[in-house]
UniProtKB/TrEMBL annotation:
Pfam family, one: GATase
Membrane-traversing stretches: none
InterPro entries listed in its UniProt record: ChyE-like, Class_I_gatase-like, GATASE
Protein name as it appears in the record: Class I glutamine amidotransferase-like protein
Length: 250
């Protein structure tokens, strides 16, 4: 795939108002990450100016891109359940199934988006018996994962208790963790996905953990444990570089 890379970001959620005020909606949060990754990729002639990014609200507005006008689709994370059957979720699954049946437009999935790809590919997604993964945690990479991310270890912000339970047929495993065996999926020329949040930052995750502690979603011990790790090294840019290399590969 040659630049410019026309990437449609499907916003499957809207962040809390305070996050939107400081960092924007998820389209802008991903723009910040992808532009930084593009400038640091090291590909001759490739920079943030090589990206044409657009964003679509698939929850409230249920807007989708014209597929003739994009080269890739990125499905964001969400507080919603990927296994629910709300009309907008079923519409997103149907759209993703359509993407997986063609071979020009490539797909990137993040957290909820990773699970939507799994669901659209026909495997089980649902609540993990292992519970929540929150803040920066290590992912044990497979040999393919080391090749894709160009490093031997990976640390990534997490914010989930739902998982993809198995790998779809023909899909390569990128890594796993004790609470989530399917942390990343790859199918050459078709899609790449991660269960974690490369777009998240220490500030965003700190806000979300504190908010969810007040809401009773995380107890005080869980919140403290997450906040103790929230400032640890996070490989978000390295993951975003892998996304871009995936789009650029033949």
């Amino acid at each position: 795939m040659k630049p410019p890379l026309r990437i449609a970001i499907l916003e499957a959620d809207t962040p809390p108002d305070d996050i939107v005020a400081r960092y924007g909606k998820y389209g802008k949060v991903f723009r910040t990450l992808l532009e930084k990754a593009a400038d640091e990729l090291g590909e001759p002639g490739f920079s943030k100016d090589s990206l044409e990014l657009s964003a679509y609200d698939v929850v409230t507005e249920q807007e989708y891109p014209d597929l003739d006008g994009v080269d890739a689709v990125l499905i964001s994370g969400s507080k919603h359940n990927s296994f629910d059957n709300d009309p907008w979720i079923l519409k997103l699954v149907e759209f993703t199934e359509k993407l997986l049946k063609q071979d020009r437009i490539r797909v990137i999935g993040v957290c909820f988006g990773h699970q939507i790809i799994g669901r659209a590919a026909g495997v089980k997604v649902g609540r993990s018996e292992g519970g929540w993964e929150v803040a920066v945690l290590p992912v044990e990479l497979t040999e393919k994962g080391k090749e894709i991310f160009k490093q031997d270890t990976l640390s990534i912000h997490q914010m989930h208790r739902d998982v993809v339970f198995e790998y779809p047929e023909g899909v390569e495993a990128l890594g796993g963790s004790p609470r989530c065996l399917v942390q990343g999926m790859y199918k050459k020329g078709r899609f790449i996905s991660v269960q974690g949040h490369p777009e998240f930052t220490e500030a965003i995750v700190s806000y979300l953990v504190t908010m969810r502690n007040k809401q009773g979603i995380f107890n005080t011990e869980e919140a403290k444990d997450a906040l103790d790790r929230v400032g640890n090294h996070h490989d978000g840019v390295a993951i975003a570089k892998a996304f871009l290399r995936f789009l650029l590969e033949d």
